[in-house]
Amino acid sequence: MASTQQPGFGNKQQKRAFLASLVGTTVEWFDFFIYATAASLVFSTIFFPDFGPNTGLLASFATLGVAFLARPVGAFIFGHLGDRLGRRTTLIATLTMMGLATGLIGVLPTWAEIGIWAPILLTFLRFIQGVAVGGEWSGAVLMSVENAPKARARFYGAAPQIASPLALVLATVVMYFVAKLPSDQLLAWGWRIPFLAGFVLVIIGMIIRVGVQESQEFQELKEASAVKTNPIATVIKRMPARVLVGIGLQASVIVLFYLITTYMLSMATQRHGLERSDTLMILLIAASVDLVAIVVVGILADKINPWKIFMVGVAFTLLFAVPLFFLFDTGNAVLMTLAFTFALVLGHASVYAVVSSMTFDLFPTEVRYSGVALCSAFAGVAWAASTPLLAAVLVPTKGTAHWWPLAGMIILASVVSLLCGLAARKYKKDVDDEPQPSAVVPAQSQVTVQNIG
């Protein structure tokens, strides 16, 4: 991140980097979330009709999980390219892949038309989405933070995090109106509309992202001839503990988020009898408040120690795990909305707004893309891919089974995040104390680099 402090929000290039990170990641997560919502609402019927309700839903969530299994592939590919070729080029590639894969899902034949090939092709396109996301989030964090003015570093780091609830709001609005279609129209063609929008949204994101210059920190690495030949191998061999800490930092926020936005939507419809449109409206209200909260927390994190914000948020997630399900199990839409909103604002926003820049802090510049990409990708495998599947196995959406195992999942994930939060402080200090490769740049360049503090 450039040490030169700019007045206000930053200079023109810094603002463009923030916007490119925000808009590009919003497009990618929009594509990702419409799939997650469709998986919980319609995919079990149109792609797995012969499996039965519970098994079909489980198979549908399995295709959702494929993307998270693909994320390490994207992390290896784009982490390497991002540390070798640059952040900007890599992020253009990830956005293109995501947009094309999403649009193709929108024209995919169903089981009734091509049989078993329908879920096979769906799974393949979902895999491509996962590869793209495997390189997107980490690159977006780096693009934003490495270009940030010093006084705004944490808020710039929250740009990809703001994109997540923003995309969720947009995706939920679209899916809300789609879900209000008559069931025959929804299953016949209505579900395709959000996916076809991927072709359009990727163009918007590309226009903004192409106009961003490479980050100053990476340019300084190239000038110093300090670019690593094999950055992924360097991280795996020398910094495996940092990767594990980065994975663990995201445990509580991911488990909480995916229980609410995927599995609990199905529970609300199938166990409590709410209409699909009603469950989406509950999610829309909670996600809208969450979006505002992440912006506020991102601003506060430049004034308050982000580590303290993180630890308080994780502690709340642990303590609210049981009350969340007590409120949800009432079947009352108002109480459900309150439960989701409190959980997302105090347990999700407070952690999610700062975990990106905290992960950024774990790795030095020359291997940062690879390190952050591996943390993000394997956190997706460990927490996001497993959460809806494990929930569906432990507590079927129909029947008499209770939700205690789900509360236990949140509590366990919160303990992991608390322990990793303690370890993250030490690794941040280690990175701050390491000599920067840019120090070998000739004196006439008059450029300094400073890690965010």
Structural features, described:
With 453 residues, the protein is mainly alpha-helical. It has a single domain (12-217, 231-433), classed as Growth Hormone, Chain: A (Up-down Bundle). It is 77% helix and 0% strand. The chain contains 19 helices and no strands. The longest helix has 32 residues, at 53-84. The radius of gyration is 21 Å and the shape is globular.
Could you outline the blueprint of secondary structure elements for this entry?
Blueprint: H1 12-41, H2 43-46, H3 53-84, H4 87-105, H5 111-114, H6 117-146, H7 153-157, H8 159-179, H9 183-190, H10 192-210, H11 216-223, H12 231-238, H13 240-249, H14 251-270, H15 276-300, H16 306-328, H17 333-360, H18 368-394, H19 404-433
Helix pairs in contact: 1-3, 1-4, 1-6, 1-8, 1-10, 1-14, 3-4, 3-6, 3-18, 4-6, 4-10, 6-18, 8-15, 8-17, 13-18, 13-19, 14-15, 14-16, 14-17, 14-18, 14-19, 15-17, 16-17, 16-19, 18-19
